[in-house]
């Protein structure tokens, strides 16, 4: 794996192991959990395999797409998690704490009134947003949404999550986006592969990678 450190203040640290076979981190990261990830896809529209019934809407939702034409779901696979630092007894992982970091902005959870339902002008409301978020996670996500990781190195996790970016990102050329984990002392490192651009995911759509490239 091609490991790089995206934050300048970590540049003096030496991560001594690759994605596979890693057993320890530098002593200066003794309290830091290191998440290795791959940004596998950017998805413009999601078609549900099972139509989603929403509160107060007469018809089920068959698909969702970004309200703004250049919005998308950034899909990440969590490859491995390194909790071998001497000061880490365990780590509680919660996918809800993952964010896309772009400049000084962070994106992640679905917000009300930011996606269109089917090919209509209907938008997701405050009431139905949690239902849609769960349906999107079921359609695209893989692996547990929460898990306690004991002290040690955890390889081949293949936990897949979709984070919503509601509008175009300035000067974004389609390269790997930076992933962050909010809460605790953590650092996320990507393997620097660019994501695929997928117009439609889900029922009848293009498949999304489920495993990290080496």
Low-confidence runs:
1-25
Q: Which structural class do you get from the secondary structure elements?
A: mainly beta
* Residue-averaged pLDDT: 88
> How many β-strand runs?
13
How many strands, which pairing sense, and closed or not: the largest β-sheet?
8 strands, mixed
The helix content, as a percent range, equals: under 10%
Silhouette = globular
Cα end-to-end separation: 5 Å
Q: Report the β-strand fraction as a percent range.
A: 35-45%
Q: Provide the gyration radius in Å.
A: 18 Å
Please give the count of helices. 1
**SSE order, as H and E?**
EEEEEEEHEEEEEE
Explain what the structure shows.
There is one protein chain. By secondary structure, the protein is mainly beta. Helices cover 6% and strands 40% of the residues. The chain is built from one helix and 13 strands, in the order E-E-E-E-E-E-E-H-E-E-E-E-E-E. Strands 1, 2, 3, 7, 9, 10, 12 and 13 form an eight-stranded mixed beta sheet that branches. Strands 6-5-11 form a three-stranded antiparallel beta sheet, with no helix packed on it. Strands 4-8 form a two-stranded antiparallel sheet. 35% of the residues are buried. Mean pLDDT is 88; it is low at 1-25.
């Amino acid at each position: 794996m091609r490991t790089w450190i995206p934050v300048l203040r970590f540049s003096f640290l030496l991560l001594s192991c690759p994605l596979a076979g890693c057993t320890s981190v530098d002593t200066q990261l003794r309290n830091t959990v290191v998440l290795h990830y791959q940004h596998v896809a950017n998805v413009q529209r999601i078609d549900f395999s099972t139509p989603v019934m929403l509160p107060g809407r007469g018809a089920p939702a068959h698909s969702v797409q970004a309200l703004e034409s250049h919005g998308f779901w950034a899909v990440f696979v969590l490859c491995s998690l390194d909790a071998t630092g001497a000061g880490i007894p365990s780590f509680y992982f919660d996918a809800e704490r993952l964010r896309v970091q772009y400049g000084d902005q962070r994106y992640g959870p679905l917000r009300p009134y930011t996606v269109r339902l089917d090919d209509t002008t209907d938008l997701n409301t405050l009431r139905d947003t949690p239902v849609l978020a769960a349906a999107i996670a079921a359609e695209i996500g893989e692996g547990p949404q929460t898990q306690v990781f004991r002290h040690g190195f955890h390889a081949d996790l293949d936990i897949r999550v979709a984070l919503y970016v509601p509008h175009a990102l300035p000067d974004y050329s389609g390269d790997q986006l930076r992933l962050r984990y909010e809460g605790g002392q953590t650092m996320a490192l990507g393997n620097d592969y660019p994501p695929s651009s997928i117009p439609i995911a889900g029922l009848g759509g293009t498949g999304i990678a489920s495993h990290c490239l080496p």
